[in-house]
Amino acid sequence: MPDLDVIIIGAGVAGLTCGCLLAQKGLKVLIVEKNQKVGGCCSSFEKEGFSFDLSVQSLGECQEGGRIWNLIKKLDLHDPIRFIHLEPAREYHFPDQKIVQSSQLETHIENLSKLFSNEREGIAQVYEVLRKIFDEFSQIPSNLNWFDPSSFSSQYPFLSKYKDKTFGQLLNEHLSHPFLKTILSIRCSYGLLPPEEVSVAGMAGIEMSYFNHGVSCVEGRVEELPLKMGTAFEKMNGKIFQEKEVEKIIMEDRRAIGIRLKDGQEFTGKVIVSNIDAQRTFFTLLGEDQIPSGFRSKLKGMKPSLSYFILYLGINGGLEELSVSNNEVFSDDQLSEEYRALYENRIPNGAPFYLLAPSRVNPSHAPEGKSTLCLSMKAPYHFSRGWDQKMIDDLSQYLILKASVLVPDLNKRILVRAEATPKTIEKWTGNFQGAAYGWAQIPGQSGILRLQRATPIPNLFLTGHWTSPGGGITAVVASGELTAEAIWSKFERGEF
Ligand SMILES: Cc1cc2nc3c(=O)[nH]c(=O)nc-3n(C[C@H](O)[C@H](O)[C@H](O)COP(=O)(O)OP(=O)(O)OC[C@H]3O[C@@H](n4cnc5c(N)ncnc54)[C@H](O)[C@@H]3O)c2cc1C
């Protein structure tokens, strides 16, 4: 008899979601995590009295009826986890204009329609396509692994029609004003892709998971969400190993039968779930000889998302000068230029950046009379100038200088600083080259074409941002739920 029903490799939000839901069904579940705490990308850290969230700044679907709200209700976590609704969601600062984005879709469409009155219909049509795709995608059953293209196109007409299209193509079909297209394209950067590369399906997930039940942040530190999920999991008799790295998935008769840890311990399970980097799962933990050649070549040809350089600052004084906590600052409206440089492993002059002021909404992040800031920009892993301390200092100075336009005298106010490069993110999460959102959301890797949760190994499943639907906390919660549903239905049918 195997030691466990289910072994989950990695305690990211997806692994925890999947683990909690299966433990709630009464299965014997073990989650193995290499770090000293659970949460993966969704973690926080402390420095000299300041508290910083490593990466995640805002979440979708946390208000009543949203996916995350429903999950924490199901796990009975509403008391310990609370959310702060962000309205407006963010501000975009262009050299001559500021655009305020609402977290309510109808308000957002109305605001844009007032600015571009000739394009009212086109704006509504773009969001209607995104909404339809998002709704269709949410209806796909968890066990869909392969599909019959003819019945698929009648059941999911929008997903079918836009399967190969980019968001840039959708914008060109419905809109004409270049600056309006730029505004609608800003959130493509949440897939770390320009509009002419990000898929319509990818953008539907990025946009609608935010507009569906608003934009929120966790009250306190963002890691409260995974930490409390971990506690709930243990209360349901789930077991978590922390600071234990899985180095091998053990195979027998072409089935995954267990895991081996770096310290040599072995555990067997009826089902193995990987919440970690997909290439590492298949090429390192399994071994190339264990996977069918077609699947192997598919994996080798896939493109991961880009990563970030992040500067965390603890500063003196409040941040009354900012009207919202989430800001994005642009030197011009040529969003695609930035990617040309990033693909050549450079960060361009005048690169746009995010300016987040977490303590503005979460005062507990900073001591009395002080504040936190998080400045970040897209960054290549193989930076042509290398990620040495001199480079990190130069980029930090660039961000501080640029941010001073919104936060005067910033340089003089800094008390504490810390930085994260793509290499830091890779080290912490194990994600290939620090990829922030798993595979890039390009047409061939999005929607129904994204890597499936079921794999060619019958009892090995994936969950998290390397599989469907993709990156972001709401999406990986969906992924964890769908993986759990697919596994549970097999247990119910007596297949394990
Ligand atoms: C800088 C940045 C900013 C972001 N901002 C946002 C945001 O504002 N909003 C949003 O919704 N999303 C955001 N995201 C994306 C979001 O954080 C991720 O898509 C999501 O957290 C991924 O969750 P996951 O469960 O798939 O995996 P991960 O969080 O990657 O977790 C994987 C876990 O597996 C563990 N692991 C790896 N290898 C092993 C091994 N061999 N053995 C055991 N354990 C292992 C890792 O330590 C990790 O804990 C951001 C991401 C980044 C990097």
Provide the CATH superfamily of the largest domain.
FAD/NAD(P)-binding domain
Percentage of residues in DSSP E strands: 15-25%
Average pLDDT figure: 95
Please, how many domains? 3
| Fold-level CATH name of the largest domain | FAD/NAD(P)-binding domain
Show unreliable segments: none
SS-derived structural category: alpha/beta
The helix fraction, in percent, is: 25-40%
Shape: globular
Largest sheet: 7 strands, mixed
Q: At CATH's second level, what is the architecture of the largest domain? A: 3-Layer(bba) Sandwich
Q: Count the helices. How many? A: 18
Small-molecule components bound? flavin-adenine dinucleotide
The rounded distance between the terminal residues' Cα atoms is: 11 Å
Oligomer: single chain
Strand runs, count: 19
Summarize the structure.
By secondary structure, the chain is an alpha/beta fold. The protein is 36% helix and 20% strand.
What does this structure look like?
Helices cover 36% and strands 20% of the residues. The protein is of the alpha/beta class and 496 residues long. The longest helix is centred in the N-terminal third of the chain and has 20 residues, at 120-139. Strand 3 (44-47) and strand 4 form a beta hairpin. It has helices at 13-24, 67-74, 105-115, 120-139, 149-155, 157-161, 167-174, 178-185, 200-211, 224-235, 278-286, 293-300, 335-343, 358-361, 389-403, 410-413, 422-429, 473-492; strands spanning 4-9, 29-32, 44-47, 50-53, 59-60, 83-85, 90-94, 97-101, 215-218, 239-241, 246-252, 255-261, 266-274, 307-316, 326-329, 353-356, 370-379, 414-420, 460-462. It has 3 domains: 4-44 and 59-81 and 219-303 and 438-492, FAD/NAD(P)-binding domain, CATH 3.50.50.60; 101-213, no CATH class; 307-380 and 384-420, no CATH class. Strands 1, 2, 10, 11, 12, 13 and 19 form a 7-stranded mixed beta sheet that branches. A 7-stranded mixed beta sheet has the order 8-7-15-16-17-14-18. The protein has a 3-stranded antiparallel beta sheet with strand order 5-9-6. The protein is built from 18 helices and 19 strands. The model has no long low-confidence stretch (mean pLDDT 95). The site of flavin-adenine dinucleotide (FAD) has 37 residues, from helix 1, strand 14, helix 17 and helix 18.
